[in-house]
Amino acid sequence: MRYDIGLEHGNDDGVLIRTDQVARAIMTELPVEHRESLVRSIDNAAYVLTQGDLADSSMQILRGRNDEGTTITLSLLFQEPDEDSIEMTMLLTGAITKDRMTARSRSVEINGIPSTLTGQLTEGRDIREIVDCSLLEGLRITGHTIRPMASMTGSTNGNRIEIMLSPSPHEDIDEILHEWMKRS
Amino acid sequence: MAMSYDIGLLKDAMPDWETLTIDALAKRILEDLPAEFMLTTVRNICTAYHKCEEESDCEPIQFLRADDGAGMTLECWIRDTKDGEGNFANPHIEGHLDLHEIGIQISANSVLLTDLPASITARDLEGTPVSDLIEMPVLERRIIESVKTTDNNVLLQLSRLAPLSWKDEMERWNDAI
């Protein structure tokens, strides 16, 4: 049986949907049997976003979890139009949470790491050398900020580090959907 | 490590599982659903239920389709019901099975046979078990109460089954919720 779960509402206005790097990685690793339901949910979310006054809203449309505690999410949101365009677009954006890390296409936040490790966060370095997460393949460090984390007793408890990543292209979702259709 | 997926919009609150009802065919379809699709299905039942509650006179909403690639499709819908006085009551889930290769469409309380030879449409079917015509577990012990014929289509109305309570019937699903 091939299951297709979700409501029939579609992206009737044909709003262009783009994907960021992490969303593409999550979609690429999605098992075949869930693809139709995801496409339908993206369409459902696009419909809801365009119907409502939700220009500042983000709609989460996929949640995944494994036994090791890694969670992934996909969310759809309106995107600011490009400077030379008035076309309305949406961005499908991905996020990964694993141990003390939350990663998105533009940044990775890690809580509670000792300051001695921050010397490794050099510009241009592949983020995969710091964070073992295949969904971040190809992204490079462009900078970082460090803030001490306060514990309940008021003492510092390691650092919260935000690592900025090199911009990656936002690609049309159709690129992935065509790949899926070719392989189905 | 394998991921479990939950796909659908997050914004909608849970249905009132106590009052939600389901027909026998939808129950069968959902019972046969592989476990990896349960969370996604529940998520979309929530969205469909919420929409049913939100909109007056809401059209039935389809939330699940399945295709075996060999001529059989399944569907699950949610729709508003009305009580005896015409007021909106609790939403209800219903199933639909289409064996389009052989021209049979099955719902909880009816079977539509299409493109049948005249020799069959002429038979006196009322009062006979539908399993004499179609052998399927979901149709066992169901009696044909009335027959309507148009052209080569035959609509068999079956002995009516009352809606089932989701809470009482969907034990495995209640655990997942």
SSE diagram, text form:
The complex is a heterodimer of chains A (184) and B (177).
Chain A (H helix, E strand, L loop, with lengths): L1 E4 L10 E4 L1 H9 L5 H17 L6 E8 L5 E9 L9 E10 L2 E3 L3 E7 L27 E10 L5 E10 L5 E2 H11 L1
Parallel strand pairs in A: 2-5
Antiparallel strand pairs in A: 2-10, 3-4, 4-5, 5-6, 6-7, 7-9, 8-9
Chain B lengths: L3 E4 L13 E2 L1 H8 L6 H17 L6 E7 L4 E8 L12 E8 L4 E4 L2 E4 L4 H4 L22 E7 L2 E6 L5 E2 H4 L1 H6 L1
Parallel strand pairs in B: 2-5
Antiparallel strand pairs in B: 2-10, 3-4, 4-5, 5-6, 6-7, 7-9, 8-9
Keywords:
A: alpha+beta, nine-stranded mixed beta sheet, globular, B: 177 residues, alpha+beta
How is this structure best described in words?
The complex is a heterodimer of chains A (184) and B (177). Chain A is of the alpha+beta class and 184 residues long. Chain A contains three helices and ten strands, in the order E-E-H-H-E-E-E-E-E-E-E-E-H. In chain A, strands 2, 3, 4, 5, 6, 7, 8, 9 and 10 form a nine-stranded mixed β-sheet that branches. In chain A, strand 3 (58-65) and strand 4 form a beta hairpin. Chain B is α+β, with helices and mostly antiparallel strands and 177 residues long. Chain B has five helices and ten strands; from the N terminus they run ββααβββββαβββαα. In chain B, strands 2, 3, 4, 5, 6, 7, 8, 9 and 10 form a nine-stranded mixed β-sheet that branches. In chain B, a hairpin with a 4-residue loop joins strand 3 (61-67) and strand 4 (72-79). The model of chain B has no long low-confidence stretch (mean pLDDT 89). The chains are: A alpha+beta (184), B alpha+beta (177). The A-B interface holds A 1-8, 30-31, 33-34, 37-38, 41, 44-45, 48, 59-68, 70, 72 and B 1-11, 33-34, 36-37, 40-41, 44, 47-48, 51, 61-69, 74.
